[in-house]
Amino acid sequence: MRNIIDSELASIVTLLIFLAILPTSLSTYGVRTLSVGLLYGLAAVGFNILYGYTGLISFGHAMFFSAGAYGLAIGLVKMGLDPVQSLLMALGLTFIVAIITGYLSLRHTEIYFAMLTLAFAQLMYSLILKLRDVTGGDEGIYNIPRLLGSVESYYYLILSIVSIMVILAWWLVRTPMGLSFQTVRDNPDRARALGINVSRVRLLSYVISAYYVSLSGILYAPLHRAITPEIAYWTFSALIVMMTILGGSRRVIGAFIGGLIFIYINTFATGFTEFWQLIMGVLLAAIVYLAPNGLVGFIEGVVRRVR
Amino acid sequence: MSGKELVLEARNLFKSFGNVRAVQDVSLKLYSGEILSIVGPNGAGKTTLLNLLSGVLPPDSGEIILYSGEGRMEITGKPSHEISRLGIGRSFQIPNIFEGLTVGDNLRASLMTREGMLGVFTRRYTSYGDVEKTVIEVSEIFGLGDRLEVRASELSHGERKKLDIALSIIQNPRILLMDEPTSGLTHGEKRDMARLITRLRDEFHTSFIVVEHDLDVVHEISDSLIVMHEGRVLAYDVPKKVMRMSEVIQAYLGGEVK
Question: What is the pTM of this model?
Fold first, then answer.
């Protein structure tokens, strides 16, 4: 057990070091793509705290991504606040969205929970479309200032925050709190019989998960410098689910790698054919059939067999 | 039982599901360090009774009272996680464990989550060594000492039963409610389980209410015995006396109870 834990942390740290060196050999465009990869990885890690570790599948996590991105962009552009104030606004908005939708959705589990999160996310999407004065409606918000001068230096800001958050997630799932998430995932009735307050554990996991995804959105807005309602649409929620399953939901690093490589598969598939969803679909189906624990689970299996 | 301290009392419990009267007017008293067994044919209401006592189901009427150093506390209708925190543990007929976690993490989770959701910041976590010590100690009592790294889904049926009970025992409950601890076990494993239960009583001073089918096990471990039939208590005494009662024999042989 101890050495498996260490090997996961070692893999995470190795990967992060690699990601710190990689930009030296990339163009600005390449660094920007990699930045998005990091943010998708962060979102997937957050989603996976709820999905992989607490056993609840949400189809509405785009609402947290957009709460973060819009919260920050509205503060910076529409209200002329400074970055710290805008950040606090984004975090506050995320809290409100997470607590309300969490409280209401977590009365149910499984598909009913998934449908409720989807419904709330679509509600948020339509609010973003309708509240034109605040959100810019379907045009979104433009001219978001990049917080550090160049794409390259902003990349290292993202990498620092993502590194902290991913290692924090690795640690979190091993704390008593993280173990209580997993007991609720595996057997809520037994968890209750052992004195665990199952509904409170689920809400806590939901809110933590929401903040990870929100942070990803917060960092995304200044990178892209423009945001549109697309990031609140349900297909983006589905992409977060896909990234996580692609990489593997059994481990923190699985979700992270899933998000990280997703942007490249996406870019490749889009360049290859206009039916890029087809490639995505086939790939995902193949993963589910051949490697149900995702790419990372598959690699682990191979390594174990070789040994 | 004289001189022993009362720990749990149920008074006139009733529970119906539609027209089915699962538990009718059941009263019992449990003393510290006592093993109270409940036997009866299928559908006699034994598991429902455990569900009432552990808060999984609320009774239609009646009272459940817990006695402790702090005095008398009515726990009727409290949710199961609160009852568990008050020191009433539960094990299940079908092993009820956390399949995705290793044996060690099953035990750690059970031990540490008692400290509350924010257990990250509590004493138990900072004294992680104590948790590990307890996990090893308890796993060895249950013969799971060399299985700590194994995922629970890979255990044998007997090991799963043991882990289920260990999950409750590691919390050091004052009272443990066990639902058929020997079902599905081989003859040898049943003997081991019976020995384990008396050993747990002796070492942890836990009181037990055990629902059990195997009458040899019941004879071996019980201080007192309740026979249930169609939701009612048919007999309640020391095992020797109960087993000689003619209505008990009739109920077990399928005869009509008058």
Answer: 0.87
